[in-house]
Amino acid sequence: MIDGFNSTPRLSPYISIDSYIYRGKTTYLATSSCCDRFNPLFDGECHQICAPSGGFIGRGNGKCIDFWEKAQQLENIWTVPRS
Q1: pTM of this prediction?
Q2: What integer pLDDT is reported at residue 14 of this predicted model?
Q3: Which residue range or ranges hold the DUF6970 domain (predicted)?
């Protein structure tokens, strides 16, 4: 996923990807590049689990409402390269 973003950074739908431990598993939160897009959370197989934030009201898609209370941030994995 990240290789594709690096090849076309201006077209990337995300500006950063951070890793978290959520519900006992390593997950990856992709922060969208624009205001009203969901910020999707992916598992280790790149399957989308939910969107804990973003969208029109900023609260995600409602499928992981406990993310911000339960998740433990590990590290920043990727940030869009700016030239």
Answers
A1: 0.86
A2: 77
A3: 5-79
